[in-house]
Amino acid sequence: PAFDKRYGTMTAGNSSPLTDGAATVLIADEARAKSLGLKAKVRIKDVVFVGVNPYEQLLIGPAIAIPLLLKRNGLTLADIDRFEIHEAFAAQVLSCIYSIESDEFMDRHFGTKALGKFPMDRLNVNGGALAIGHPFGATGARLAMTLANELIRSDKNLGLIAICAAGAQAGAMLIERV
Fold first, then answer.
1. What ranges make up the beta strands (E) of the chain?
2. What pTM did the predictor assign?
3. What is the CA radius of gyration of the chain?
């Protein structure tokens, strides 16, 4: 174990490697993009950022951000064609999924029942940070472009990105293929 030497479960084998990398994402107003002769891959439909109590669980933020984003847009898990959830650690993603599927967690945080069974067959379909790596400073761009390209490749329309960040922060973004 890397952190808690006696009881910890985070190891080099189930944690995303820190990798060198770079990514570029061009985000532009639709009119400006057209004036430059650029064709969009996706449209950002909505974004949510949250902070959570770091003493409860530091990296649980996606389990809060995903339900907020879905509710705000009148969507369910079934409406999303592809999910990209950043894998800081394998256990972190599993914890977020378990929480979204938990009536107790959802009642405590939202006063509702669980969102239902998470569609694992639509999650990180090209591999997540455990397989691809975690290029510090470029992870968000990597997630956005991985999902945009996957929506095009698979001829799907709606994608949801979720990411946790140091300091008990998280974000989720809903994108739509154009």
1. 42-51, 82-85, 158-165, 169-177
2. 0.88
3. 17
